[in-house]
Amino acid sequence: MAGSLLAIYLARRGFSVDVFEARPDMRTTEFGGGRSINLALSERGIAALREVGMDEYMLAKAVPMYGRMIHSVSGDTKLLPYSGRKGEYINSVSRAGLNIALINEAGKYENLQFIFNQRCVGYNADVGEVIFDNGRTMGSDTVIATDGAGSAIRHSLQQSLPGFQISEVFLEHGYKELHIPPGPDGEFLIEKNALHIWPRHKFMMIALPNFDASFTCTLFLARKNSPPYEGGAAAASADGVVLSEPSFDDLTDQRSVLAFFEREFPDAVPLMPTLTEDFVHNPTGSLGTIKCWPWNIDGKALLLGDSAHAMVPFYGQGMNCAFEDVRVLDGLIEKQLSEPPIGTPAAASASGVAMLAGGQFEWKHIFDEYAAQRKQNTDAIQDMAEENFYEMRDATADPVFQRKRELETRLEQTYPDYFSKYSMVTFREDLPYSVAKLKGNAQDRLLMDVCRNVRSVNEIDLSDVMEKVRDLHYEET
Buried b vs exposed e over 341-369: b needs ≥16 C-beta within 10 Å? Predict the structure, then answer.
């Protein structure tokens, strides 16, 4: 998606754009499900879509989510709002729908074309040549790689560039997509304007609403025996006895799957008529964080989006961050451009590569400045995304955490200058991720301390808390 959006941005500036896409055309080929965690479109992504006039179109096809709906094992529910301000919510959008909308928008530009079924398998940095799986090669002055977490361009740079640094950290948890269909009259069977979470401490299930009144569910569960998860998972009981945690490896047939869900998610089972079939049919995905450096090679190549900074999906910022990448890069291009270099070949791809060739355009300066701006911010959101997994899985069921979220909501309702960490990340596109992390962590520590010492938020003096928030010193820990 970042590549498709980048292509549109480049075409608007007069570049001639060829898009090399690894997959077939999604508009004419049935979209395969099973790995399509819904997208949570928020302000950073909306700001990027707004630049190309696509924000209102996508929001019209989105389902607003105003908070997290927490489901206990007993079936009780509790809504934790995302914000205390009106108009601040996230939007559940279809991954396939947004992909197709971007391709359709790209089709409006005569100087932009998609070339499908062209999978990049490598890059020769010495000669600036991209290599495709059909044996085709293409030379270019500059390559922008938007080929995702498994980036072939990044892998080639890792193999050939001395000093290339990379860190790949995988959670022991994998994920599997499941489904709640619409009701018999086409209605939503559970609250439609919420992100539903079934937190169970060592694992969880979530559900995001779709425009057709269905829900895309995702189970996050340990994987004991599959790389990179080998080593197993275990937990200690109160008396110190080591217990085995539930894992995908334990759910080997429809009977074990159904028994697990009836025990852990009993209120969801009646809503999921194809549960066991979906569980067996859909693949189990992996969850990891990839950090690397450098992102650019003397103006010859640039890594953008997941190819540079893949993250786990628990802050709903993977796409939003990648779209922000595009907007930041475009701003730097605009700063250098005195007039559009019409006719300069360019390309971008959602799961391939973007190429920019020829001309006197100074890509090295742009790429250097871009990477310097973005690296600290993408590191910050990657860290926060992983931290939010444990918050969603464990803390959302904790009464102290629930009081803290209620306190944050009241502070946002009362004080215009208060923003929770979640709000800073999600609704403040003007605020760098690194700043949101620094301020947000300090506020979280303060508010959790306050909420541990009370039974109800009604006991808390909001003005006193806000004074302490304003006096906070923000330092890295």
Answer: beebbbbbbbbbbbbbbeeebebeebbbb
Looking at the 3D structure of the chain, how many domains does it have? 3
Length of the chain: 477
Distance CA 241, CA 232 (A): 16
In a domain, 268, yes or no: yes
Cα gap 97→330, rounded to integer Å: 24
C-alpha dist (Å) from residue 368 to 108, 297, 362, 365: 31, 9, 11, 5
Q: Quote the domain boundaries for residue 280.
A: 171-285
CB 164 within 8 Å of CB 125: no
HEC letters along 198-237: EECCCCEEEEEECCCCCEEEEEEEECCCCCCCCCCCEEEC
- For the purposes of burial, counting CB atoms within 10 Å of the CB of 288, is it exposed (0-12), middle (13-18) or buried (19 or more)? middle
Q: What is d(CA 294, CA 3) in angstroms, rounded to the nearest whole number? A: 19
Q: Are residues 176 and 160 in the same domain?
A: no
Whether 51 maps to a domain, the answer reads yes
As a whole number of Å, the CA-based R_g of the chain is 23
Cβ(321)–Cβ(314) under 8 Å? no
Q: What is the CATH number of the domain that holds 209?
A: 3.30.9
Which structure tokens are listed for 181? Answer: 């269909």
Task: Please state, in angstroms and as integers, the Cα–Cα distance from residue 235 to each residue in 95, 202, 222, 391, following that order.
Answer: 35, 9, 12, 18
- 101, 236: one domain: no
Residue 228: asked if its preceding bond is cis (omega within 30°), the reply is yes
Q: What is the pLDDT along the chain (477 residues), one digit of tens a residue?
A: 999 999 999 999 988 888 899 999 999 987 555 555 579 999 999 999 999 999 999 999 999 999 999 999 999 999 999 999 999 999 999 998 999 999 999 999 999 999 999 999 999 988 889 999 999 998 877 889 999 999 999 999 999 999 999 999 999 999 999 999 999 999 999 999 999 999 998 999 999 999 999 999 999 999 976 555 444 444 433 344 334 579 999 999 999 999 999 999 999 999 999 999 999 999 999 999 999 999 998 888 999 999 999 999 999 999 999 999 999 999 999 998 865 444 554 444 444 455 544 445 788 999 999 999 999 999 999 999 999 888 888 777 889 999 999 999 999 999 999 999 999 999 999 999 999 999 999 999 999 999 999 999 999 999 999 999 999 987 654
The model scores a pTM over 0.85: yes
